[in-house]
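USER: For my understanding, would you kindly supply a protein sequence with its C-alpha cells?

ASSISTANT:
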Amino acid sequence: MRRENSVTHREERQDGTVVRATRAVIDLHAIGQNVSAIRRRIGDGRHLMAVVKADGYGHGALQVSRTALSSGADCLAVAVPEEGQELRRLRIDTAFGGVEDCRGRIGADSLLS
C-alpha cells in the first residue's frame, strides 16, 4: 500500500499573479523503505537519526517522522526547539536533537527536555 503526502507551495505577487507554483508528492512508502535499508546496512549497534527540520523539508514533518521512526530511525533531528516541541505536541515521543548532532556538536535530546 502506497502512503503519499501531497505538498503544494504557491507564491504570488502582490498583484495576485502566480510567480511559482510547485507541487510535490511524497512517497512515504519509499521513505520507509530507505530508512529500513539504511538500518539494515548500519545494524542495530548504531543510532539512526532522521532529519525532519523545516517541516520535513516541506514534506510534512509529522508524517515523515512517523514513517521514519516506524521504519528504524531511533531519533529525529530538528533545526530549532520549536519544531521538536510541535512534534511532541502531536504525540511524537522520541529523542530529538539538532541538525548539528550529526556533526557531534551537541548531544541528542539536548534541545528539548
